[in-house]
């Protein structure tokens, strides 16, 4: 009864919020409404009972289907016994970092309460996902797929597929998220995961149905906690068509490396004899190879899967690096707008700043921590964006992290790096560790202009791809290697830059990029949402008059 009452009140407030938001968005852009109830529930993905996080009773959560420029009004009711937030991996939140759903921007939803996210998928297409961002909730579920279709009059560089499937892959622990969190809080590293899931199912727990001769789109996202994964389908090729909102050159692959946090769209044609075929997902660059299987099932199948599942690459870095370099932007295809993706000549723009980032593990107060440029991030008592908006002192310091590796020991701080709005910067991820790193930047899509082994130097720029580098929001960095990206800072706000290795993120390998302007115009940044929750030192303040 309480939930029904809350949702009824929320609907009224939600409509008020939507109507007010209507005045600062285009009148012709549609609204889509979602009501989500977040609960605990028993799940058995690897054959043992554990506590999962469900959305409307589903694990994984429901897909979000949208079209470029849609306004998404998502009312999230928190029926857990702890605070909760959802973040939207790859959704750029144009001019609106308040809605990003990480603790640096958004107050948590208290138990028994709700919050209505008001998002617009402005000038975006492609395949993304959402996930719970607080504590270690991501290890319990609460994630789901997001797809943004092109508007009807915008050409897409391939025919409409006969089917469109979300494929969420990721490593998984049998332990509950609370046990894993306690392990990290005690200063320990996590053991290797217990297995791999495909759409929340363990080995042979999932099948995709296809018809002979037809072509299907698979939107593959690695929503796991640490491992890079290789995806392949027995006897079938995959044509890559989109990466995190960018239409790519349509290169064909027999298997595809999907690093943690990344999303890819492939086309698969059911062009083999009618039977069942293995779908295989296995870990990359790991001492112990974890593998799981699903089934691609032809509608007129003559029999079950046969033979061993096809093998894939395991520890070969060069194989993966060469594949990554082959993923390029389709310059003649339209993106979210009619103009070709290649009409933005990023390679002709002079960069105004270079930021070099390097991670390091270490001990602080005899507990395991991870850092970027020697700073291990600690969350303050107030979201950074609220402290910035209300000018609350003592929450963070601009420049509390260097834009170059310092070479010093790890220390704790609330690390915020500032950059100027409308600048065009170069970020170099230098990986001096023997693992594959994966980094994500909220609020942006960036050009992956180069990656190679060894130490980055200014002469490394001679080998940059300044013509058709893929634009995406999550990039890998290979062991003892570097990756360079170009970013046009056209989105004011407080944006999380983090590792997607989730235990490392939890233990400090992240910071916030404050993209700053002195302008207060809504052309540059929206005002704080009227329904924004206020917490910490922002409690008792006011958003805007209702």
From TrEMBL:
Gene Ontology molecular function, alphabetical: copper ion binding; oxidoreductase activity
List each copy of the Plastocyanin-like domain by range: 38-151, 164-301, 381-518
Give the signal peptide, or none. Answer: 1-27
Q: Which Pfam families match?
A: Cu-oxidase (PF00394), Cu-oxidase_2 (PF07731), Cu-oxidase_3 (PF07732)
**Top-level division of the source organism's lineage:** Eukaryota
CDD domains xref list: CuRO_1_AAO_like_1, CuRO_2_AAO_like_1, CuRO_3_AAO_like_1
Q: Which UniProt keywords apply?
A: Glycoprotein, Signal
Task: Please state which protein family the record places this protein in.
Answer: Belongs to the multicopper oxidase family.
Q: What is this protein called?
A: L-ascorbate oxidase homolog
What organism, scientifically named, is this protein from? Vicia faba (Broad bean)
């Amino acid at each position: 009864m309480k939930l029904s009452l809350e949702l009824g009140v929320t609907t009224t407030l939600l409509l008020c919020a939507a109507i007010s938001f209507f005045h600062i968005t285009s009148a012709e852009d549609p609204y889509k409404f979602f009501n989500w109830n977040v609960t605990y529930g028993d799940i058995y993905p690897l054959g043992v009972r554990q506590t999962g996080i469900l959305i409307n009773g589903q694990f994984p959560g429901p897909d979000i289907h949208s079209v470029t420029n849609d306004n998404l009004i998502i009312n999230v009711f928190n029926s857990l016994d702890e605070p909760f937030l959802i973040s939207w991996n790859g959704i750029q939140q144009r001019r609106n970092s308040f809605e990003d759903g990480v603790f640096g921007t958004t107050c948590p939803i208290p138990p028994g309460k709700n919050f209505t996210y008001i998002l617009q998928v402005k000038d975006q297409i492609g395949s993304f996902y959402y996930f719970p961002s607080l504590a270690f909730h991501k290890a319990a579920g609460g994630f789901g797929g997001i797809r943004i279709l092109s508007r009807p009059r915008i050409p897409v560089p391939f025919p409409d597929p006969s089917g469109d499937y979300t494929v969420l892959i990721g490593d998984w622990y049998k332990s509950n998220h609370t046990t894993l969190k306690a392990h990290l809080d005690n200063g320990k590293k996590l053991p290797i995961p217990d297995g791999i899931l495909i759409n929340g199912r363990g080995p042979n727990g999932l099948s995709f149905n296809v018809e002979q001769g037809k072509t299907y789109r698979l939107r593959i996202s690695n929503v796991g906690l640490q491992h890079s994964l290789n995806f392949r389908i027995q006897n079938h090729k995959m044509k890559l068509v989109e990466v995190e909102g960018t239409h790519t050159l349509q290169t064909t692959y027999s298997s595809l490396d999907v690093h943690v946090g990344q999303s890819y769209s492939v086309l698969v044609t059911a062009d083999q004899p009618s039977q069942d075929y293995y779908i295989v997902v296995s870990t990359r660059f790991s001492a112990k190879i974890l593998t799981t299987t699903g089934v691609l099932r032809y509608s007129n199948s003559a029999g079950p899967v046969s033979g061993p599942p096809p093998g894939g690459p395991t520890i070969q870095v060069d194989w993966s690096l060469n594949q990554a370099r082959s993923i390029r932007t389709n310059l003649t295809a339209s993106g979210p707008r009619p103009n070709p993706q290649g009409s933005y000549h990023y390679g002709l723009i002079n960069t105004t700043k270079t930021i070099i980032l390097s991670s390091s593990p270490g001990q602080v107060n005899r507990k395991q921590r991870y850092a970027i440029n020697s700073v291990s991030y600690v969350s303050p008592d107030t979201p950074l964006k609220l402290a910035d908006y209300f000018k609350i002192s003592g929450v963070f310091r601009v420049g509390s992290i260097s834009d170059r590796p310092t070479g010093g020991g790890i220390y704790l701080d609330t690390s915020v790096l500032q950059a100027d709005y409308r600048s065009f910067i170069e970020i170099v991820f230098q990986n001096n560790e023997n693992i594959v790193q994966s980094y994500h930047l909220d609020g942006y899509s960036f050009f992956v202009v180069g990656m190679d082994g060894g130490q980055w130097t200014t002469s490394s720029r001679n080998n940059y791809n300044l013509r058709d580098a893929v634009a995406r929001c999550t990039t890998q960095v290979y062991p003892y290697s570097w990756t360079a990206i170009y970013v046009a800072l056209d989105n004011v706000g407080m944006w999380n830059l983090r590792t997607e290795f989730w235990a490392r993120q939890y233990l400090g390998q992240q910071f916030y990029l404050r993209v700053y302007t002195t302008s207060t115009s809504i052309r540059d940044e929206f005002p704080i949402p009227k329904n924004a929750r206020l917490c910490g030192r922002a409690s008792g303040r006011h958003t805007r008059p209702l």
